[in-house]
Amino acid sequence: MAVHKSAQRDLTMSRRASRIQRLGRAVGEGFLFLVTSLSMLAVLFIFYYIARDAWPFIRQQGLAEFFGSGEWYPSSEEQPSYGAQAIFFGSAMVTLGSVVVAVPLGIAAAVCLSDVLPFVVRQYVKPVIEILAAIPSVAFGFFALVVFAPILQEQGGPLLALLCWIVFLPVALLGALVLGDVLADRVPGKNRGTRRTVLTSIFGVAGLGLLAWAGSALSGLEVTSGTNALNVSFILGMMALPTIVSVAEDALQATGRELREGSYALGATRAETLCRTIIPAAMSGIVAAVILGIMRVIGETMVVWMASGNTAKIPAPWYDFLEPVRTITASIAGDMGEAARGTMRFHVLFTLALALLVISFVMNLLSQWVVNRQRRKLSGS
Q: What whole-number distance in Å separates Cα of residue 51 and Cα of residue 351?
């Protein structure tokens, strides 16, 4: 009995020890909450700091000229003008060009790594792609200015044709394989393998013919300057590629082996499993990968500053990627060192920074909305 009471006292915590335990838990939780809140406080501080220095320009000049005019002469002493329309257009143009380069190539590479290539090959290929993310942006900019721009200017047409083949050939071949496999069941006949081979060959030849036509048309172009929107778009696409490939491939892998085996057990082919089961299930992750890649492109500074040509005008015609452009980040980086503090030129650069911050914030919210919507759709709620 005495032994039982002694053991019970050992298991019962004293009041002092209980208070110390509650105090330690409260201190630990408070510390973790503080650490978690630091990132949010940093974002709010950045918003406040940029908006504070942008407000004098918004109050005195308004936003009509800022968004409605393409005349950007903030350093003029006689008649300064602050129209940033051409700068916003330049940012949108290089972002669209890099999306055309990075998204088809990145998603095709992610699908190949996830469900087409053998596991041993994937173990070697994926780290090589992810190494691109570790290369500093100034190295990309140096390559774009010193290596790619002269080649683009001297061998513009043939180089554009080669880039067209490099970017769209994997997409054309993968599309021919998927379409041939999916449509083989809809064509009457006994031998499915023969139908699939014939359809794949037809789509493959059609894709190669389309690429040959595009390559022939591009090979006749002349490039007057290698520092233009096309140069920057291609390099930014290469910089966004590892983000899109890595995140999209992880999303495809996260769908699980059970989903694939269930689809195969119901008689679906590999292409049908990819198109109708795996890719729809991973669509939220794929969309998030694309948006993360776009955000990387929008916020990039060094490459666009070194290789875009830095001309604040809308190309004529507006879709001419061979013309020089200027982006928001390049304008801020290039003009901030020359703008005296307190001048209207100084405050208009902060207005550009505030617009860039709002765009990035909206893109982040959009990615979260897409991911949550797709998650609710897949769960049936």
A: 7
Cite the beta strand spans of 105-246 per DSSP E: none
Of 208, 225, 233, 190, the C-alpha closest to 102 is: 233
* Token pair for 236: 């930014």
Give the whole-angstrom CA distance, residue 23 versus residue 25.
5
Give the number of other CB atoms < 10 A from CB of residue 224. Answer: 10
* Collapsed DSSP state (helix, strand, coil) of residue 72: strand
CA 220 centroid distance within chain: 31
Cβ neighbors of 199 (< 8 A, separation 6 or more) are 179, 180, 183, 184, 187
Residue 249 is encoded by which pair of tokens? 């491939």
- Long-range pairs for 374-379 at CB < 8 Å and ≥24 separation? 374/283, 374/284, 374/287, 375/284, 378/280, 378/281, 378/284
Report the pLDDT averaged over residues 327-335: 90
Rg (CA), the chain: 28
pLDDT single digits (tens) 190-235: 677 788 888 888 888 998 899 889 888 888 888 888 888 988 998 9
**pTM of the predicted model, to two decimals?**
0.79
Residue 219 gets the label, from left (phi > 0), alpha (psi -120 to 50) or beta, of: alpha
Pairwise CA distance, residues 111 & 282, whole Å? 11
Q: Distance (Å, rounded) from C-alpha 36 to C-alpha 154?
A: 53
CA–CA dist 94, 304 (Å, integer): 9
Please tell me the distance from the alpha carbon of residue 161 to that of residue 144, in angstroms, as a whole number.
18
Structure tokens at 148: 């790619």
Please give the pLDDT value at position 291: 87
Backbone angles phi, psi at 102, to 5 degrees: -85, -35
Q: Return d(Cα 33, Cα 25) in angstroms, integer.
A: 12
